[in-house]
């Protein structure tokens, strides 16, 4: 009986959390499209997400592209397929590694910062203060972050794609002695628009999820410093897991030929 | 500073308001009326439901049952748009000031003017600096970040923000907590001054009796989620109520037993 009760209770808590998240998402989304919007807040978030994440995303992409070239060379040379390296690099980066790794890095950087900032605002009553100043906190705090996440992460991924492919090129040409022109040719040869587009669609969804998790956990944090710490952890962990799950689902949607 | 005649509609009226968190009943049927232009101080110990009562009136919390009327209109079932409009009437000074630390001091004060009333920033800044002056702060404070200010200065900025768009009703949540006695008295005088200048209705919750005596026209005592006594501020020392007596004189012995063990 104890076991049944515990299972039931856990299930109810799960349902409650799901419902609360759904309501939160619905309300936040509706505030993204209903005026007034807060251009200053949107701008601030865009700079935070788009501009200040450039170094970490760029470095991640560069080394990922480099290690991809190196790994596929040592693997593919076993069956004389070195020629496919450029194609492998560009397809892996644009379709998978660009959006996923950029997403995970941004989740760590931005998701945590959002949860910590909004969480602190919650426990110091700043969110209540917003309401008493006739400003809807969902509109002022959450909507700008969602908009910025949705638009900036795809742009970051465009940059990551370019730098990642460039990293593969560097290793291919300067370490593995490929001809530069033929490496570039190989890169373009099998690349299709859908490869890049699917990656950017992923990026937009990841950006949205990161901002949503950061805001949601921050917004519902309670109990002082410890609560804010827990909110930050939950934001990063849940965003990361959602990125990996949605990555599989979107890939299935785009590329399920069978 | 006399209370309005009882024939007029009270500014705020609570009837049978209840609220519980989990198994704990925090508000247990609050009945309270605040007349227009009067300054009511609600006294009571920690955890008796003072803050929950204020937040229920503001709509930050939704009561389980009961009625809350502002200017005679029911507010417990308002939608968010209507709620935003209603909150234009309110200003609030939070216990920890609750200043927005991402904004400079002047933007904190001007926040309601810029976001709520869509005033141009330059005009709002002028008003903000004037309001800072009204609470005894010089214009050079305006550009500082809230984290650079002392606790007393933060309270003053919070007060300036609460009065910036000239609300009809102002709430003060433990305005003197955490301040030294002199700064506490400065804040008390500012509160009295600001409320008088605006002709606003004020509700203050506090457990600081010096503050209560200074600010109040009328005093209400809350105990176990109920208002157990209301009366004129000058009657506070001979209330004839054992609970009020014990609280006012700060005695450990009396009908109020401190809950040492958590529920």
From TrEMBL, chain A:
InterPro entries: ABC_MlaE_roteobac (IPR003453), Permease_MalE (IPR030802)
Lineage top rank: taxon: Bacteria
Cellular component terms (Gene Ontology): ATP-binding cassette (ABC) transporter complex
Keywords carried by this UniProt record: Cell inner membrane, Cell membrane, Membrane, Plasmid, Transmembrane, Transmembrane helix, Transport
Location, primary (coarse class): membrane
Keyword hit for Transport: yes
Transmembrane segments: 51-70, 146-176, 196-216, 228-249
Function, as annotated: Could be part of an ABC transporter complex.
NCBIfam families: MlaE family lipid ABC transporter permease subunit
Protein name: ABC transporter permease
Protein species of origin: Azospirillum oryzae
The organism's taxonomic lineage, starting at the top: Bacteria, Pseudomonadati, Pseudomonadota, Alphaproteobacteria, Rhodospirillales
């Amino acid at each position: 009986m104890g076991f049944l009760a515990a299972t039931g209770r856990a299930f109810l808590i799960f349902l409650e959390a799901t419902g609360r998240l759904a309501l939160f998402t619905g309300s936040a989304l509706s505030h993204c499209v209903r005026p007034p919007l807060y251009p200053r807040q949107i701008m601030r978030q865009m700079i935070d997400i788009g501009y200040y994440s450039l170094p970490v995303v760029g470095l991640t992409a560069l080394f990922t592209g480099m290690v991809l070239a190196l790994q596929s060379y040592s693997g593919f040379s076993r069956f004389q397929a070195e020629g496919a390296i450029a194609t492998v690099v560009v397809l892996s980066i644009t379709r998978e590694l660009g959006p996923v790794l950029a997403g995970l890095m941004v989740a760590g950087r931005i998701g945590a910062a959002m949860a910590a900032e909004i969480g602190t605002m919650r426990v110091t009553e700043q969110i209540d203060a917003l309401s008493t100043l006739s400003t809807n906190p969902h509109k002022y705090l959450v909507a700008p972050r969602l908009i910025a996440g949705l638009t900036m992460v795809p742009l970051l991924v465009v940059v990551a794609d370019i730098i990642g492919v460039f990293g593969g090129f560097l290793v291919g040409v300067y370490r593995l002695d490929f001809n530069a022109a033929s490496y570039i040719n190989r890169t373009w040869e099998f690349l299709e628009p859908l490869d890049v587009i699917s990656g950017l669609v992923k990026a937009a969804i990841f950006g949205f999820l990161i901002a949503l998790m950061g805001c949601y956990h921050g917004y519902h944090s309670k109990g002082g410093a410890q609560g804010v710490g827990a909110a930050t952890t939950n934001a990063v962990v849940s965003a990361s897991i959602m990125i990996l799950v949605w990555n599989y689902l979107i890939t299935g949607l785009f590329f399920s030929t069978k | 500073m006399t209370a309005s005649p009882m024939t007029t509609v009270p500014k705020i009226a609570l009837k049978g308001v209840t609220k519980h968190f989990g198994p704990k009943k925090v508000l247990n049927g609050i009945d309270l009326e605040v007349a227009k232009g009067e300054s009511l101080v609600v006294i009571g110990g920690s955890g008796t439901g003072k803050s929950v009562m204020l937040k229920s009136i503001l709509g930050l919390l939704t009561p389980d049952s009961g009625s809350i009327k502002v200017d005679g209109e029911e507010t417990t079932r308002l939608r968010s748009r209507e709620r935003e409009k209603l909150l234009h009437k309110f200003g609030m000074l939070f216990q920890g000031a609750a200043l927005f630390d991402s904004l400079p001091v002047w933007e904190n004060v001007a926040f309601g003017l810029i976001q709520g009333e869509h005033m141009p920033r330059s005009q709002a800044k002028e008003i903000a600096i004037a309001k800072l002056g009204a609470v005894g702060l010089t214009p050079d404070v305006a550009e500082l970040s809230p984290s650079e200010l002392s606790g007393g200065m933060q309270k003053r900025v919070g007060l300036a923000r609460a009065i910036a768009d000239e609300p009809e009703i102002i709430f003060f949540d433990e305005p003197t907590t955490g301040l030294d006695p002199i700064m506490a008295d400065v804040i008390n005088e500012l509160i009295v001054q600001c409320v008088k200048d605006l002709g606003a209705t004020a509700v203050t919750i506090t457990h600081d009796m010096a503050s209560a005596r200074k600010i109040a026209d009328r005093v209400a005592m809350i105990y176990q989620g109920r208002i157990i006594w209301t009366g004129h501020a000058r009657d506070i020392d001979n209330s004839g109520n054992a609970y009020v007596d014990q609280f006012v004189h700060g005695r450990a012995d009396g009908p109020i037993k401190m809950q040492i063990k958590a529920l």
